[in-house]
Amino acid sequence: MMLYCSSCQVLVKEGGRCPACGKRKLREAQAEDPVMLMTATETKCNQIAAALDEEQIPHEERVCGLEGIASAYAGKGGISNKNIFVPYGRLQEAIDLMQSIGVTHSEVTAPDGKETAEMSPRKRFFWRAVSVVLFILLIWAVVSITDTAAEWLKSLLYS
Fold first, then answer.
1. Are the beta carbons of 5 and 12 closer than 8 angstroms?
2. Quick one: which of 69, 81, 90, 95 has its CA closest to 45?
3. Which of 78, 94, 75, 74 is nearest to 86 (CA)?
4. pLDDT band at 117 (very low <50, low <70, confident <90, very high)
5. Contact status, residue 29 vs residue 35, Cβ threshold 8 Å
6. Is the pTM of this model over 0.85?
7. What is the pLDDT of residues 61-93, one digit of tens each?
8. What is the mean pLDDT of the chain?
9. Strands 10-12, 3-5: parallel, antiparallel or unpaired by DSSP?
10. How far apart (Å, rounded) are the C-alpha atoms in residues 53 and 49?
11. Which residues pair with 40 in a beta bridge?
12. 129 by DSSP, 3-state: which?
């Protein structure tokens, strides 16, 4: 049974929380619920839309964030990403179609052949916090070493 977040329109395979918004109020997915198939560039979306139209699979493209508006004003159409949504009842058919036209691969695996697992939001937050602390320590070390080297060089030149 797949759970569905009506706010984000994503499917949740396991756990009782939406991975995108953290919402706990999930429901069973209905056949007509729009779910995100994938994210692709505007250029790739044309190929995907043509394939979906040919198979008569309803779909909707939505620009990701504000970058599509910015690229349109800058005259750089075709470079922003779009999310492609299909009805839940036709999702597997759309996935199979994407694999057959070479847009996606059949499964995501790690180099050792094992399937990869997504990090939980807590684990992701922990590693982001650790990364920030390590980055700050790195900056401090570089500044300290540079300051010490500058003092040493100054003592050689002005003594």
1. yes
2. 81
3. 94
4. low
5. yes
6. no
7. 888 765 555 455 555 555 678 889 999 999 999
8. 81
9. antiparallel
10. 6
11. 82
12. helix
